[in-house]
Write a structure and sequence with these properties.
single chain, alpha+beta, 15-stranded antiparallel β-sheet, 5 helices, globular
């Protein structure tokens, strides 16, 4: 019984994380348990971000740039057309094994208007938790936040607060896309061009065009997670209609491309469906286990940028 519960817990964790990293993400990385309620007041958080920003960009003894030069460099950031999402969007998911509910997950683009270096950002919060029944088996409370440049769709600041089964992670990461580095706890890490965190990767991926994609095409997004650079990849598998609590939805279908040594043995072990429309919201994430599968299904949505493409 304990062994079965353990296998289910792994599948549950992997399914939740895959939604958050859907953008083609890929792999299961151990996540954590209870949300540490972060006291992010509108005064303290901006000050913390400002301090990190100043350290990351101008606190180097050999780099005493003027404010004008620093702001001017921002013009070098890319420009991404985003018609897929907007402030106020909320998505809620049910995580279940057949008819047995295990928990819920939410994704929200908060109605914040915080600026970093005078550039507007999109504040995205992702949460996941087990229900009261599964809390007794494997309690999970996870919270991820990302402040994403509204024009470049690149992360400036990433907050990770996860606590699972007594295993806790608290990460705060500031990104400097001009130096291609990430700063956490005064430690610097080299990053790739246009690197995403696990949340911003999902939202950037939603702006990609899959209308002309062919079965077998691979899509890659550079990410920085657990202080490592990781090229997240998924394989396009065509279109499919998914029946959900919000109706039948026309979807694009993807299989994450797994690396050796990860949880899943084959590409078919994990499948992701996103709406085949301008929104491209995750509709279902499915993880195959020994018997049956664990699913994460869309149950509520609001504030979409465009009409959901429901099947007739």
């Amino acid at each position: 019984m304990i062994q079965k519960a353990g296998k289910f817990s792994i599948a549950f964790k992997a399914t939740f994380l895959q939604l958050l990293r859907f953008s083609f993400g890929t792999l299961f990385v151990p996540i954590s348990k209870t949300i540490l309620l972060m006291k992010t007041s509108r005064v303290i958080l901006p000050l913390a971000i400002g301090a990190l920003f100043m350290y990351s960009f101008i606190a180097q003894p050999s780099e005493k740039s003027s404010e004008n030069n620093t702001i001017q460099s921002f013009s070098k950031l890319r420009k991404i057309q985003n018609l897929a999402f907007k402030r106020g969007e909320k998505l809620k998911y049910r995580i279940h094994y057949g008819v047995v509910d295990a928990g819920t997950a939410t994704l929200e683009v908060v109605n914040d208007t915080m600026k970093i270096a005078k550039r507007p950002t999109l504040h995205v919060i992702a949460r996941g938790q087990t229900n009261s029944v599964w809390d007794k088996v494997y309690l999970v409370r996870d919270k991820y936040e990302s402040y994403i440049d509204e024009e470049a769709l690149l992360p400036w600041y990433h907050i990770r607060r996860v606590n699972e089964g007594g295993y806790k992670i608290e990460h705060d990461i500031m990104f400097n896309h001009f130096k291609k580095e990430a700063v956490s706890n005064k430690t610097k890490y080299k990053t790739d061009t246009n690197t995403q965190d696990m949340i911003s990767a999902l939202y950037y991926a939603r702006t990609l065009d899959f209308a002309s994609a062919k079965k077998g095409d691979l899509f890659t997004v550079n990410t920085f997670f657990d202080f490592e650079n990781y090229p997240m990849k998924v394989k396009y598998m065509g279109t499919e209609i998914i029946s959900s609590e919000v109706g039948k939805i026309n979807c694009y279908k993807f299989h994450p491309v797994m690396q050796k040594g990860r949880v899943f043995k084959t590409e078919e072990d994990m499948t992701v469906w996103i709406s085949a429309d301008t929104n491209k919201i995750p509709v279902r994430v499915q993880t195959n286990i020994l018997v049956g599968s664990v699913k994460m299904d869309l149950i509520e949505y609001s504030g979409l940028a465009a009409k959901l493409n429901k099947a007739k």
